[in-house]
Amino acid sequence: MSFAPIRWLLIDVMPWPHGTKGPPEAFKTQPAVWSRDVASLGALLERFATLAGQRDWPDHPLFGRMSGPLWGRLTCKHFDHHLRQFGV
């Protein structure tokens, strides 16, 4: 089964659905000190950006095999969702 049409709709066309729960593996840490969490997030985003030219990417828990550009678009949409959620 190809996830391509579903990925395209969810990542590039449809707005992020409100109330959708992420996969359990996304919730491995608890919030701690705000400034430290923000710094950690910044470091993770920098690391993600350095992988732009990488050929092989891990499978997504829901969408399966994805390319780097597709991971990038999903990440941008995810961040946009949370920034809007908190009025940033």
Task: Describe the overall structure.
With 88 residues, this protein is an all-alpha fold. The protein has a domain at 55-88. It is built from three helices and no strands. It has helices at 4-13, 34-50, 68-85. It is globular and about 40 Å long.
Task: Kindly report the average pLDDT value.
Answer: 87
Distance between the termini: 38 Å
The helix fraction, in percent, is 40-55%
The helix/strand series, from N terminus to C terminus, equals HHH
Please compute the radius of gyration using only Cα atoms: 14 Å
The helix count comes to 3
- Beta-strand portion reads under 5%
Count of extended strands: 0
Return residue spans where pLDDT drops below 50 for at least 5 consecutive residues.
none
Largest sheet: none
Structural class: mainly alpha
Label the overall shape: globular
Describe how the helices and strands are arranged.
Blueprint: H1 4-13, H2 34-50, H3 68-85
Defining traits:
mainly alpha, about 90 residues
Please summarize what this structure is.
The chain has 88 residues and is mostly helical.
